[in-house]
Amino acid sequence: MNYSKKTIEDIDVSGKKILLRVDFNVPIDKLTGEITDDNRITAALPTINYLLERNAAVIVCSHRGRPKGEWKDSLSLAPVAKRLSELLNSTVKMSKDVAGEDSVRLAAELEGGEVLLLENLRFDPREEKNDPSFVKELAGLADIYVSDAFGCVHRSHGSTCGVASFLPAVSGFLLAKELEVLGGALSNPSKPLVVVLGGSKVSDKIGVITNLINIADTIIIGGGMAYTFLNALGHNIGNSLCEADKLELALKMIEDAKSNGVEILLPTDSAIADRFENGCHKRIVGVCDMPDGWMGLDIGPASVELFVEKLKTAGTIIWNGPMGVFEFPEFAYGTKSIADAMASSSAVTIIGGGDSAAAVNQFGLADKMTHVSTGGGASLEFLEGRELPGVECLLDK
Ligand code: ADP
Ligand code: MG
Fold first, then answer.
1. Which ligand gives the minimal distance to the CA of 358?
2. Which residue CA neighbors atom 24 of ligand 1 most closely?
3. Residues 156 and 192 in one domain
4. What is the per-residue pLDDT for 124?
């Protein structure tokens, strides 16, 4: 995939009407109607401000939740318009429809330096179908398409790629950074490239492993998925997570890594529990000593030491998937240790994946990383080396 795409800095935006696709799918308290986390809104401000400073008229669009093509008051973007107005310190207009009469009128009237927010894209059933009639209506509102919604680039929707057939299409600053850092790490990483993979399931990460086996120098495997690998190698894993239908695949991945000269590191010990519950009994055992009836919920201290030593040698570290059930404080040690090691590393450090990003935020270490990807599913597909429709559709540099 070509990661080198034009940005808003490579095109003349001054005085133009801009259709800006963002990800304003923010959590809103059902009772109070208040936005509980406005990170996704503040993250788009640099792009919006850049456009406003150049006297562009900015038509912002986003989805929120899963209204399935129907109007739902509870999923309106009205609270977002209010918050965005506060953040920009100027009134953000809002349309009553997605690309209908009201949007057409407001977009036509919109002047340079003003912002219009369209109503939830997914209120229109044609958005997710990438319907040509919808795409034409949406594109008709503007002169230029700017995408800053990295979390949505793996989707072929009207607003994520369809409109790019009708308008010059470039990235905003958020998407540009994702492409630069993630794309750079995959196409031209500072070596050695060490990849840390965890999370619950091997099946979620097959594509990532398969792609990274061609790129990485070392792959560290922890989390629940490590037990499928350990089991495949003949270890008793008690009641730990195991995908019985992936044992052969796990062995094949180990073989493929060997023949590619890629080192694979697996845990040598585990923090185990007698039941899946906060407040359970906890013990540390070597991977050869798993007692029946117990389950591994975190990597143990010897594994932490092994993994952290390896991270110290890295030029680039890509991390996807927690090392254990970090939601239970007793089993957060492995995940926290990897996050700490990355935070104090001078390597390029990249976090991909929703839960991994949540863990790093929870530990307060996000700003110590080179990059915490804003796209959960999108960052995984990126690491799988897949062509992303919302990136493909942008103009090449
Ligand atoms: P990401 O969203 O970063 O890609 P995943 O969704 O793949 O990460 O995995 C996150 C989940 O994996 C977490 O909820 C965590 O509790 C779970 N997990 C990690 N290690 C284990 C384990 N040993 N047993 C069970 N679940 C685990
Ligand atoms: Mg997840």
1. 1
2. 224
3. no
4. 97
What is the count of structural domains for the chain? 2
Choose the final residue of a domain: 115, 150, 174: 174
What is the 281 CA–ligand 1 centroid distance (Å)? 20
> Is the previous residue joined to 192 through a cis bond, with omega within 30 degrees of 0?
yes
Which residue among the candidates 140, 183, 315, 354 is catalytic per the annotation? 354
- Closest CA relative to residue 334, chosen from 270, 276, 377: 270
Query: Is any atom of ligand 1 closer than 6 Å to the C-beta of 325?
Result: yes
Pocket flag, ligand 1, residue 321 (CB < 6 Å): yes
C-beta of 355 in contact with ligand 1 (< 6 A): yes
Q: Is residue 67 part of a domain?
A: yes
Q: Is 297 in the pocket of ligand 1 (CB under 6 A)?
A: yes
The whole-angstrom separation of Cα 106 and Cα 60 is 12
Give the residues across from 17 on adjacent strands: 57
What are φ and ψ of residue 244, in 5° steps? -60, -30
212 and 265 assigned to the same domain = yes
Find the range with the poorest average confidence among 26-40, 108-122, 169-183, 252-266. Answer: 26-40
Q: Which domain holds residue 42?
A: 8-174
Same domain for 188 and 284, yes or no, is yes
Give the pLDDT band of residue 278 (cuts 50, 70, 90): confident
Stated pTM of the model: 0.89
pLDDT value at residue 375: 82
Place of tokens 């009407």: 17
Same domain, 14 and 123: yes
Nearest residue (CA) to ligand 1, atom 14: 325
- Res 377 pLDDT > 90: no
Q: How far is CA 96 from CA 24, 70, 126, in A?
A: 17, 13, 17
46 lies in some domain = yes
Please give the pLDDT value at position 20: 98
Mean pLDDT of the chain: 96
- pLDDT higher than threshold 90 for residue 30: no
Q: To which residue do tokens 């597909």 refer?
A: 381
The answer, yes or no, to whether any atom of ligand 1 lies below 6 A from the CB of 162, is: no
Q: What is the CATH number of the domain that holds 259?
A: 3.40.50.1260
286 Cα–ligand 1 center, Å: 21
